[in-house]
Amino acid sequence: xxxxxxxxxxxxxxxxxxxxxxxxxxxxxxxxxxxxxxxxxxxxxxxxxxxxxxxxxxxxxxxxxxxxxxxxxxxxxxxxxxxxxxxxxxxxxxxxxxxxxxxxxxxxxxxxxxxxxxxxxxxxxxxxxxxxxxxxxxxxxxxxxxxxxxxxxxxxxxxxxxxxxxxxxxxxxxxxxxxxxxxxxxxxxxxxxxxxxxxxxxxxxxxxxxxxxxxxxxxxxxxxxxxxx
Length: 229
Fold this sequence. Notes:
alpha/beta, Rossmann fold, Arc Repressor Mutant, subunit A, 2 domains, 11 strands, 40% helix, globular
């Protein structure tokens, strides 16, 4: 299967190098020199993944992400400043699926891209059932969202995958290591906050049903419970 990656970065030299490298790995690439151009492209063409730089003139990566999340669930891998936890956390809060700090190793970038593409391709496979229920919430597998009291609650692709996985293991303690390997497709790294942020974002959306809780077991992982279980 041929994948199409959109690179949104004002650094044209870096974008060209990234494009050449990814093209050599059989990933078709399109480059956008700023957020507005990238948004326009996403509105008119189908992409499998977006590489989005944070630091750009005009509208930065965060504003670009906010705008594109209004109309697309295309997975986004953000390229952040090395050591800047604020950038990473904010990006995940706004709906990024993963992040990679600059400067990065090209092989690490390729591994992250392939992991995201694999899990999103798996998520697109036709489910055995169109919906299932947890508490008073319906999970709509066709549209990758939740429904509560006839109201649609949008989920990012990664939030949807986290929810489905936790529901599948309802009541069981799931370690961060397992979540990282099974959902993110990579080993858990030290100081990686991505799982915590995805869980936090999912918790906020699950608050519509007080019966459902994602419990944190300090030093161990997470457990999804319904009611008093």
